[in-house]
Amino acid sequence: MVTTDTRSVGELERRVEAFDATTPDEMDDDDRARLTDALVALADAYGNRGEFDAEAEMIERLDRLGRDGADDPVDVEVHLAVVLANATSVRGREHVYETAIDPDRLAAYRDRIESVYDRRPEAAIAAPLARATAETIHANAKGDRRDRIGPLVERIETVYDAHQEPDIAASLLRAYAHAERYLGDESERDRLDRAEELFGAHPDGEVAAGLAGVLAGRTNADAERTDVDAIEDRIGRIEALADRYPAQEASILRWLPVATANATRASFEAAEPSRVDHWADATAEHHDRLSTPSTATWCAVATFFSARASFFAGDVAAGEDALERLEELEQQHDNPVFEHWLGRAMFDAARSYVETDHPERAKAMVEDLAAFAVGHEDREEIERGLDALRTHAPQLFDEEDVRVGEPDTASTDPEETTHAGGPSTGAQPEHGDDPTAVEGETSRGSRDTDISVDVEATDQIPTADATDVTATTDTTTTDTTATTDTTATGDATATGDSDLPGCGNCGEDGCGNCETGRELKQPASGPVLAAAAVGVAFVCLSVAYTLYRAQRALWNTLTES
User: Fold this and answer.
1) What is the C-alpha separation between 261 and 305, in angstroms, rounded?
2) In whole angstroms, what is the distance from residue 216 CA to residue 286 CA?
3) Which of 66, 132, 335, 512 has the smallest C-beta neighbourhood within 10 Å, fewest atoms?
């Protein structure tokens, strides 16, 4: 619901204060109507400014006004349902919820509307109930409570079954849009098919905006399959809906950055640099036009993949331009999802400087990353990544910098800056978009990112979700952890499963099968194993990168011919 009231907060406060000395019994119908209107508008104004206590106070005053009217021609209870639904708004207040959101507070307001609907199962109450339920789904998704999404979607379905109105269908489609983004294919019913069915029954502008959301959400799955063509088809469909319903153009086009950012990511995975540049630019243009925290997170996702594609191709200048855009976004928004994408791009830059023989830039970037790690919640991961980078290219760094594990060294693996957020975004971002979402995953080498982002995530980086954000963890840290865990498990098994040595066929003098009885050297220490694992991981990373460059060279040769 878009707020269209243009009255200032001060004016609304004066209108409400004018009735402070008047009891409900002394008010006529016109007085009650004016006070009701002012309370609804003032509560919404407070909520839009993040003054939730003041908003709650106005809601309670409206509730008391409704209870005091025995014969109420104004029907304050309907207005109460509306103001409660306004209080659950997430998208309309995303500037307030950029860094944190309390799903329980919004759910409590939704439950109060449900109580009213239980007494009065009327369309006038059902519409705000459906709207509040869709917003609560969004809040739970951003708060990484995805197990609550499915039951709430089903609740709107039951409300729609009882009241098949366009505004309730629009709320249902918004719910499906959030479910599509945050839950993926975890549904017995195909959400896109259901969305098309509802749009066919109600070819309305608000319903079209909901359909656009489901189309955009489906691009998460398309990107996982690297299906750039499918994403581009959905982008075209969203644009066609905006052309068909100009009055709802803004509500429809606000979903485009989700799709264009996914197109950028899928194009990168498909090794199509021209498409990467095109869709990254398109995402930036959408953000420049809409300029919301949500579009900023998706812009960060697209810009990161544009930077990565440039750095991997050896186009340092283009990569640095994209890195600067990420730095600007991170400075403008107080959301850890931006640090997530910026940190990963900085590692890509450092690796590119090493590969393209820019030692001074490499050193400077390592110093920047070390400073970036100070006070960061992922400091240990960043420091491990920097240590690995120094080990990979010791000729570029001072002798004392090559030592692994120094307490003053800062680092994380190129992909490690992934986790925080998620929500994470994972991004949930939004993430991150939400981005995240962004949502637990592992990246397989330099190119295979396996990111499903919720960049709209607020207090965490998106992990397997966007917009809150799926995130990516590089093989360096993953392999190190896996090696350490395996070693620990193996040691426990060798010493704890039996009091007797050997394989079970051993004699007192030992066994030729399992070689029990032979003197063994002391096992390697934990730090040695960790250092070895880091070295192996970087060898794998270098091989993957070399294969990628060979693939790019072959692709360029084929296209030129």
Assistant:
1) 9
2) 14
3) 512
Over residues 191-227, the pLDDT tens digits come to: 999 999 999 999 999 999 999 999 999 999 999 999 9
The CA radius of gyration of the chain, in Å to the nearest whole number, is: 28
Share of the chain above pLDDT 90, in %: 54
SS3 of 36-75: the string is HHHHHHHHHHHHHCCCHHHHHHHHHHHHHHHHHCCCCCCC
Please state, in angstroms and rounded to a whole number, the distance separating the CA atoms of residues 282 and 488.
49
* pLDDT tens digits, 495-538: 333 333 333 334 444 444 344 444 434 444 455 455 555 455 55
Q: For 148-153, which contacts have Cβ atoms below 8 Å and span 24 or more sequence positions?
A: 148/103, 149/178, 149/179, 149/182, 149/183, 150/179, 150/183, 150/186, 150/187, 153/179
| φ, ψ of residue 504 in degrees (nearest 5) | 105, -15
Alpha-carbon distance of 471 to 463, in angstroms, equals: 5
Q: Which two tokens stand for residue 228?
A: 């750039």
What pLDDT, in 10s, does the model give residues 100-119? 899 999 999 999 999 999 99
Annotate 487-556 with DSSP letters as a single string: HHHHHHHHHHS-SS-SSSS-BTTB-TTT-TTS--PPPPPHHHHHHHHHHHHHHHHHHHHHHHHHHHHHHH
> Which residue, among 497, 418, 397, 411, has the nearest Cα to 463 in the 3D structure?
418
Q: Give the Å distances, CA to CA, from 307 to 231, 277, 348, 349, 398.
A: 21, 9, 8, 8, 28
- The segment with the largest mean pLDDT, out of 310-324, 356-370, 527-541, is 310-324
Q: How far apart are CA 425 and CA 419, in angstroms?
A: 9
Q: Distance (Å, rounded) from C-alpha 192 to C-alpha 196? A: 6
Section 447-475 average pLDDT: 39
CB 38 within 8 A of CB 15: yes
Q: Quote the tokens at residue 85.
A: 């639904």
Calpha distance 194→202 (Å, rounded): 12
Q: What is the pLDDT of residue 70?
A: 55
Per-residue pLDDT averaged across 351-369, rounded?
90
